[in-house]
Structures are given as structure tokens and as C-alpha cells.
Amino acid sequence: MRRRTALSVVSAAVGGAIVPLAFAPAPAAAQERRSPQSPSARWDFDERTGTVTREAVSGTADPIGYVFDDARYKPDGDPVRRRGVRGRALYFDGYSTVVTADGPGKLDPAGGFTLDAWIAPYAYEQGIDGKPQALVNQHNPDAKTGFLLGLRRFGQIVFQLGFGTDLIEVKGASDQPAVKGRWTHVAATYDPAARQLRLYRDGRLIGTATTPDKAPVLASGEPLLIGRHNTPTLLNGEFHANMYIGLMDSLAIRPGTLDDTAAHNEHADTIAALPDHRVPRPDLAQQRARYDGDRHRPQFHMLPPWHWMNEPHAPVYFKGKYHIFYQHDPFGPYWGQIHWGHAVSTDMVHWRDQPIALAPAADSVAPDGCWSGSAHVDGDRGPVLFFTGGDDRLPYRQRTGLAVSSYPTDGDTDLPTWTMKSEPVTEAPAALPAGPGTAWAENFRDPFVWEEDGVWYQLTGSGIVDYDGTQVTKKYGGTALVHTARRPEGPWTYQGPLHWNDLTKVPEPGEVWELPVLLPLPGPTGKRTSKHILLVSPWWETFNSNAVKHTYYWIGTFDKDACRFVPDHEKPREFDFGEHFTGPSGFVTPDGRSVVFSITQDRRSEQQHAQAGWAHNAGMPVSVSLRQDGTLGVEPITEAATLRGRRLAKIRQTSVKDANRQLADVSGDLLDIEAVIEPRDATTITLTVRASDDGSEQTLLSYDTTKWRFSIDRSRSSLDPDVRKSAHGGTVELDGSRLTLRVLLDRSMLEAYINGTNSLTSRVYPTQKDATGLRLTSEGGAARVVSLDVWHMNGAYDTSVAPAAYDPPRPTDVDALPNHDFATGDLTGWTFVSGTTFSDASVTTRTDWGWGGPFYQAETEEDATGHHLWGYNPDAGGDDAVGVLRSATVTLGGDGVVDLLVSGGNDLDRLYAAVVRADDGKVLAKATGRGGEQYRRVAFDLSAHIGERIYVEVVDKATGGWGHINVDDVNVPVQRP
């Protein structure tokens, strides 16, 4: 793990045309075939450690690209290996693991050749851009040369071979896929005598295709890649798609042709040589130890074993166990290819991972994603799952579906196995009446289901609009559509909208409601009242700065006969004071509590997600209730206290000054803090957490008694300029004369609960190892500490918690490049070399570009408004303008590592930011954008040039679309005179 690493910038290209040919019987050979010979290249993946795998024929050590080869937030780690069919196997993680080799060895493709490997897929990619997941390839789709062995949607095995004029593809039979969770032997052969490509699965022919009467052409100029497509689609400017996920063993490239008999015999011989004459079961479980030492990854909150999650949903209790499901992309820490992850618990705070519950499947209601939903117990058959099925073939791509567990047959209360029903539960047809307009049929998702008095109720998030043909002409607001039934399978009867927000009067809940939740509210003693809480997440069709930041609620009455909700207040209230609590789900526990789950968005950039290997986690489940004054009560569930370990502080009846003295030796990044304070005449009371000894990093939780405002100040929470540091808060009255505070601190995760009425969920990302201190202060008077307790918290999973790892400090005896972050608001310190594209008007504080998402420019204490250089200026020619901008000339010092933020067009020859040696004008390093406006940080290790005079040059010689470049936060360690 190093503080700065040189990051490669990789472009993506769209593949060439592919000619698919139908399955056909193998024709007789026109001449004698050459049987497969000894491999020209073979990878056994038998290494137990290290970042290379050895190609057995040449003995070459081929590098394994892996996200933690040079980790950003944790100690470095080796690629994952597991037991293989024979020996060891390499685990490909779906987004970062790739083996790069020189080529297939001494191979004459004109004489025929064979590729074969053992694979155990973990998941199927959705065929992004129509490209296969590559198992092994060395091809150029544009030139129609080279070869690829891979998988298409739902595990269909394919083989492509280029002949210069055609790229021929043979597809395996769709009912003969490489099955998830088991070993499959795949073999592809080119038979020049028969002019045929053939595919074999476990020794049996599954597909053929006819080839031209000419020799194939290898793509010798391309690298041979194992696990990643030669021309992958780039997602979000950061992630390579079309990658394999799962185990691979014994990959071989052999001269010669495999026929049906040889394929059968070779496979039979392999099985006969295995212990017990059977293929072992692959171990595809995700081990959390992969993230040990990650300084930001929460330890006592629920989160997946790896990669991306969004909202947890469908909480349900059955036979002594709580189950939670969650939106999950198994391919990497990015949005897409949505599955349902699953975890089980006996107390809602200690969790065990279960297999993926739902996955997109062909000929199902969800071929293009299994989106959010809910769960409810259906008598003896146990819980049933209601989910949103994505199907891009439909005019309205969303509908709800049903899944059942195997519990009735296997009795397993962990509920590890689920089956989706083939028919949808509910759909939104065009012109479905909804209040003042019709339901927005394109937005029909997130069913929330419960049963009461023999009636099943289903709320589905949507919006209310007017249509003119297929165009939306007016948007009224978001809603939850109600259906009822007597059994989960239906038939379901539409009952109209539960409630809706008028955008002209109440715009906050958005144009569409996502994740509507309706729960009964128990009173202070736990008894049920006549009131319910309705929670929603707002959604807008176009970019909105408030998207994915808020959860709103109403308290009111549910008329179950009319299927309508009558709120007690017109304006919705914000559930949480931070900007990270979103995606609510909920249920009623066996003891009558209404419990809400949520997702805590981590607000990191795509690049940070890629470097970390995970994204987001669940919030602590909270109990909601109706207080005596009719307001909402919000507190973490009582079970959270069972995570407590050693008590670190027990302070009673003392002054704030004395309490702060007692906290001097208390520190940690996994803490539960409870405090009761009498403000008396103090105007502000502040609890400081994650504080470094020198105060350069600290996060403030403050209560202002004059404004009744509780807030978080993250302006100094991190020295990392790429971390969001905004402040948030809200109004909350004292509990009588006291301030009652509960804080759960879990590495980057911070949840604060005040007076049992409000919560504030946020994120902090300190960079210093000692940023673990606690402080308590008051201003304007002397407050009294009634009690203050601090506990160390244990992990939520049955694994030990590794200490957080931090980078060593960088040299401090250096200066900065003048105006390195454009904090002056202009180009002071920079020189216009040529052109018109760069000017003082190019320096902006804009946080987004109008039609899309955030720039994520640097945020520093010196430049709190976030100035940056946006290279697109419509008043100066836009993308067609060109120019060159140059920094001051300085002497490189410190550790010699230069880093900067860059985005914009992708053209390394004409559009780039470069470090240039001043004496001879030599470019020492440069970087371009990735065809997107969101910044990503690149770093150049120029330690070999310490002591040399350098400058930074921003070059725009590109015109047309994306003919601009953006730059910010250029960090050059400058040698002091």
C-alpha cells in the first residue's frame, strides 16, 4: 500500500461486426485432421501467492493485474487463489483481475488449434455492448483478426475466430451453459479440414459454425488477455466490462484439432484421474479478509462481502432468524447487473453471508435485473419475496415478480435457495388512472408488501403524469400505487394511489417515489397506535442535486378499506439530517417494533470505489415510534448494544472540562458513545470525533442551544482533497433541559442520534493514523456532563477485525506549485502559451455540468468553494477551441510524486496534462481524460527526476466532441530554495 501510485489511463474501443452462425452437424473432413498436440501455451494457475502466474511452456512469469496489487486504502494483497480441479485455480473478481501474456506461443493457426479450460463462473454478465465475457482472447474485432473464448448472457459458451474479412462466432446451445457454482470444462477447436469451429462442454459437442476457405489471421499485435476482453467497454469512465468472474484452472492452447471422440475421451480420462473420479465442488465464497486493514470499510454494519451494494430491503423474520436482502452487483463496486444479495442474523446486528438469492435469468420476469422489493411470511411455506423485474424487451421495462424459497422441501431456515416464479405479479399498463393523471408506467418499481386480516397489500413506487401518446406532457408528483389480493400469487386488484405529492406545492419528494414503506407506529410503551409512517425516497427523471440524498416521511392514518393514507401534515419531514441516509425499507418485528433499514451512500467517486473494491453499506437498523407529543421517535435498535466490547470511559456528574480531561486517553475508530449533558448557560456543545493530535483532521458534532440546531462540520474531516466535506444539520429541541446523544462510529461511518427524535448519518475519511481522538467542549458557558460512556465496538461478522492501515506521511519540507488548485479564482501563476480555449473564465466553482452528475473537484480547507479549470467554454469556441496553458517552472523535490485531477476528452496525443522537463522540453509523464466530466486522480512517480526543473502543461489541440480537458489540484512537491 502506497500513498500515490502511477495510474494507467486505458481507452476503450467498440468491437467489430460478428457473424453468428447457426448450430449444424459437423461435416466430414475433407482431409486428415491433425489431433491436438502438446500445448503451445499453458497456464495451470498453481501458484499459492504472488502477483504473477507462470506460463508452463515458455516458463514466462505473466503478471496478474489485481486491484490490491498496489492497494490504495489497505495493505497490498495477492490475487485470490482457491482449490482447482487439479491443484490450484485463480479467482477472477469480475472487474480487476486479468492476466496479460505475450501470445499463444508457437502456433500456426492454419493447421488448426484448440483452446480449453476449466471454469467455475460466479455470475453472468449481461452482455454489455453485445460483447462476451472473455475467458481468453487475443483479437482485434475491428480488423476481424485473432480469437476469443468466452461467455455470453446467462453463461452461453462462445468462440470467435478472425479471418481478416470475417469474425466467425460459434455459440454453444443455450441450454448447455457454463453453469454457475460448478466446474465446467470448455473446449473450442478450429478444424481447417472441415472448415469448421466446434465447441465442447464437458466432452460433448454443443455448437458448430462454418468458416471461410482460408487461413485465420492471428492478432499478433494485441496482448493475450486472460479474464478480460481485448476491447472492453469502459463504464463510468473507470470500470472495464466484459470481464470474467469466477475460478479458472488449466487453460491450454494447443496446435491441432479436437474431434468428438477425442473430446469425449480426453474429458473421461481427466475425470478418471481425479480423486474419487469426480470433479470437486468449487469454493466461490467471498472472504471478507480480502479487505482486512481497509481504513474506511465499516466493521459492525451490514455490508456485502465484496463489491457494490445499494439499499437493503425485504427484511423478514422467520423461525428465529432475521433475513435481509440487498441490491448487489457481483461484478464490481459499481451500479449495474443487479442481483439480490442475502444475509441472515439472529439479532439484526450480527450477520452471516448467504448465497446470492436472486439473479437475472433468461425466460424470467427479470432478465435485465432483479431490483428492489420486500418480503413477507406466507404461512407454512415461509417468506416470499416480491421484487422488481427488469425486462428491456418490454415497452414499460419494470414489473413486479415473486420468488419462493426451498424451505418447504429442505427445511433450511437460512433460506439459501430461491426460485423466481415465471409470471409477473403486477404490471402498470398505459393510462392506469392515478389521481389527477395516470401512473407513470415507465416507473413502476419497489413493491412493499404486507398481509393484514387476510388481505395482502402491495405498494409500488411510481409517479403521476399526463401522456400525449408516448410523451410525458405534465408531471404531477410521486406516488405509491396500491394493489390488493387474497394470496401472494394474486390475482391482484388495482386500488389507486395511496397518496401523492403535488410538485407545485411539495416538490421535495420528487417526481417519482422510490421504495415506499408504510409501517404502523407503536407508542412510547410499545403498544400499537392508530398512526402509520409513510417513508419515500425521491427520484427525478433528470439530474437533480438532491438525488440520492434524502428520505422523507409523513405521519398519518392508513384507511385500509379505502387503501388511502391521510397525512397529519402536508409538508413531508426529512428523516435524517445528513445526506447519506437513503433507500428505506422496513418491517414489524415479532415483539411489535417497527424497524427501518437504510443504505448509507458513501459519496465516493467512481475511481475511489474502484480502488477500494467495495461501495456503500447498510445503516444501523432503527426503531421508529410515535412520541407522546405526536412527533416521530428514532433510535438505533436495542440490539446494537450487544456489539459493545470493552468500556473505554465511564464519566459521571462532572464539568465539560473535566470530562474532556478524562477523554484524553480514549480513542478509536469503532466506538459507541452515549452522552447526557445539561447545557445550562452554554451556547454551543461540541463532541469532536476522529481527531488527530495536531487537529488537522477532526469532525465536529455540535448543538447550538440558541438555534436549537444539531449539525456536523466535516470541513476538516480529511486531508484528502477528493473527499466530500460539506456540513449538515437540522432543528431539534432539547429533551427537557438535557441533550441526549448517541454516536455510532464505524471507520468512515458516523451515525448520531439526538434526544431520541432525530438522526444524522454521515461519512468521514481521515488520512492520518492518529485521527481517532475524542474531545468534548462547550462555549458561552459551563455545561454539565450528567453521564458519558464510550465502548469499543466488535465486528458484525464472525471474523476478527484487523486494525486499520494508513499510508506513511509524505515529506512536508516542500512548497506547492503556485495556484496549484486555482483557488485564486483565475489563472494567476499560469501562462497562456497559445490559443483561446483557456482563460480566467475557465476557472469555475461549478459542481456539475448541467446535464449530468458531479465534477467531484478537489475540496480543501484553503479552497472551500472548489475552484477548478473547466476546459469547455462555450463563449470561447467550446470543444472546437484549442490552446496551451503552462504553470510556473519549479524544482521537483520531496518524494518526486506528482498527482492531479483530470477529466474531459480521451486523446492522449492531443488532449492532456503533462509534466515537462524545463531544460529540454521533454514530456516526463502525461494523462488525458476518459470521455467524461467526473474527475479522476492520476499520479506520476517522477522520483528519478528529483532536483530537475519542471513545469506542468495543459494541452488542448483537439476539436469536435469531447475536445476539451479539465484539470484541478495539481500537486507538485516543490524543492525549497
Primary descriptors:
disordered N terminus, beta-fructofuranosidase, 977 residues, disulfide bond, 68 strands, mainly beta, nine-stranded mixed beta sheet, globular, 44% strand, eight-stranded antiparallel beta sheet, single chain
Give structural notes.
- By secondary structure, the chain is mainly beta.
- Helices cover 3% and strands 44% of the residues.
- A hairpin with a 5-residue loop joins strand 22 and strand 23.
- The chain has four helices and 68 strands.
- 52% of the residues are buried.
- The N terminus is likely disordered.
Outline the fold blueprint:
Blueprint: E1 19-21, E2 41-43, E3 52-54, E4 61-65, E5 81-83, E6 88-93, E7 98-101, E8 113-121, E9 133-140, E10 145-151, E11 157-162, E12 167-171, E13 184-191, E14 196-201, E15 204-210, E16 224-226, E17 234-235, E18 239-240, E19 245-255, H1 260-272, E20 307-318, E21 321-329, E22 339-345, E23 351-358, E24 370-377, E25 383-390, E26 398-405, H2 407-410, E27 418-420, E28 433-434, E29 437-439, E30 445-452, E31 455-468, E32 471-485, E33 493-500, E34 512-522, E35 528-539, E36 552-559, E37 564-567, E38 573-574, E39 581-588, E40 594-600, H3 606-612, E41 614-615, E42 617-618, E43 622-626, E44 632-636, E45 644-655, H4 656-662, E46 670-678, E47 684-691, E48 699-704, E49 709-713, E50 728-731, E51 739-746, E52 749-754, E53 758-763, E54 773-779, E55 784-793, E56 814-815, E57 831-835, E58 843-844, E59 868-869, E60 883-886, E61 890-891, E62 897-904, E63 911-917, E64 923-927, E65 932-941, E66 949-956, E67 965-971, E68 974-975
Domain LamG-like jellyroll fold: 111-261
EC number: 3.2.1.26
Keywords: Disulfide bond, Glycosidase, Hydrolase, Signal
